[in-house]
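Hi all, long-time lurker, first post. I run a small reading group and we've been trying to get comfortable going from sequence to structure in the token notation. Rather than ask abstract questions, I figured I'd post a concrete chain and ask someone more experienced to write out its structure so we can walk through it together at our next meeting. Sequence below, copied exactly:
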Amino acid sequence: MPILSTLAETQRAVITDDAFGERILVVPRVKGQVDPDRSEVEIVGVLRTGPVKDANMTEGGMAQSWRTMLSAGKAELHLDQHRYPDLVIRKDDEIRALERPGQPWFAVETFDDRNAPRLIIGLSES
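-- Answer (accepted) --
Happy to help. Here is the structure in token form:
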């Protein structure tokens, strides 16, 4: 049963990325400078950004429970682990959302590769 579960999760990740993914530029950094050992790479992932305020919805009640609350200025990038097996992302790398207005920058705060088949990258505004 675990094999079927993993297969279903992998298929769900691919479908989600194809439907909701956007082009992202990963810029490796080391001590604030470009990392000479790693090159920039363009990937596709699901970028989830939080609201400008700490308020989720104004209606109240059960309407607020439909999505996870992200603090202002925080974001998460979800990637298909199988699509990018050699991707190396470290704290302080920079992420640029290429398809959003103004192409905003984010800084990598956390990198979680233990939620197979998803890589979850915690971001803050850069």
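A couple of things your group might point at:
The first strand starts at residue 22 and ends at 27.
The chain has a mean pLDDT of 79.
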